[in-house]
Task: structure prediction
Amino acid sequence: MNKVQVQYPVPPRDCPLCPRLAAFRALNREKFPDKYNAPVEGFGPMDAQLVIVGLAPGLKGANFSARPFTGDYAGDLLYETLIKFGFATGDYAKHKDDGLEMINCRITNAVKCVPPENKPTTEETRTCMETYLKDELSAMVNLKVILSLGLISHNAVLKCFGLKLSGFKFGHGARHDLGNGYILQDSYHCSRYNTQTRRLTTPMFEDVFEKIQGLL
Result:
């Protein structure tokens, strides 16, 4: 991937590229007319050295609030950790106007629209990656570390760089050299399921950020 300082494409509010996601978005606008219910843009500076790539907006989290990981359980651990390690400042109050600011870090998702049951299809992930995520990462001219939260994010990032999935196995805490100064750092997703089942603990998550601090 070439580092090119260009304006990357932002998904329009009524992005039509994935019919299933567009239909689900329309349904949610009827059910929750006072909520955002649209593709969710990334949060944080484009000149950051670190980008965190999640899966997709949560139905009652980012899909409602219009900010990644804001308003759902996963955001509680993520933003608390970002503040602790100096990648964010302010108070996380679970809404996009809480004044929280990112420091040298941006948060985005592999898929920009909320999918039914939080499960995007392979085709939806590919479409969003090729149309939006790839250019978003390319436009981050100071980018050094990409933190993938989960396997789908991990695979989407590799495809952005044109790399074979078989050469880079996902694993919590795994680190991969993607070439050209880019490092891919893996972590289990900070979802409610993973934390409640203890697949991911707070010390495990914080250990990932300690590793990232050592890379920047």
Remarks:
- The beta strands are 50-54, 88-89, 101-102, 105-109, 145-149, 175-179, 182-187.
- The chain has a mean pLDDT of 95.
